[in-house]
Amino acid sequence: MKLPVWTKPALWGAAAGALAMTVFGFSVLNWHGDRGARELAANASRDAVTAAMVPFCVAKAEADADRARLEKLRAETSSYSRSELVRASGWSTLPGLPGGDYTLAMACADRLRVAAR
């Protein structure tokens, strides 16, 4: 069986097009493989839980009997120190977990600092 003359260039063109589309898709169109999609989903779920828990953390901080901690937090300039103060105070401790959540502590400290202004 004899193939037409244009078969070889057509196959090379199809292979080059597939390679170009793959490179273009992953770099420009933001396609993701299995691991990347799992990381995106995990980050999105963590961010959603943090956003949902911030009002409870703020309420715990504002209901705390020791007002000096809240004033110290609002006076603190370092974001790390503010989040550590929130964690040490127990405001970012979720039910059933032994320690305070770091991302929740950061978000709660930011919200408390903004609320003071």
Architecture overview:
The chain is mostly helical and 117 residues long. The protein has a domain of 64 residues. Helix 2 packs across helix 5, helix 3 packs across helix 5 and helix 4 packs across helix 5. The radius of gyration is 26 Å and the shape is rod-shaped. The N and C termini lie far apart (83 Å).
Unreliable stretches (pLDDT < 50, length at least 5) are none
Question: What is the tally of beta strands?
Answer: 0
Number of helices: 5
The radius of gyration over CA amounts to 26 Å
Oligomer classification? single chain
Largest sheet: none
What structural class do helix, strand and pairing data support? mainly alpha
N-to-C SSE string, H for helix and E for strand? HHHHH
Task: Provide mean pLDDT, rounded.
Answer: 89
Q: Assign a percent range to the helix content.
A: over 70%
Percentage of residues in strands = under 5%
Q: Per the principal axes of the C-alpha atoms, what is the gross shape?
A: rod-shaped
N-to-C span: 83 Å
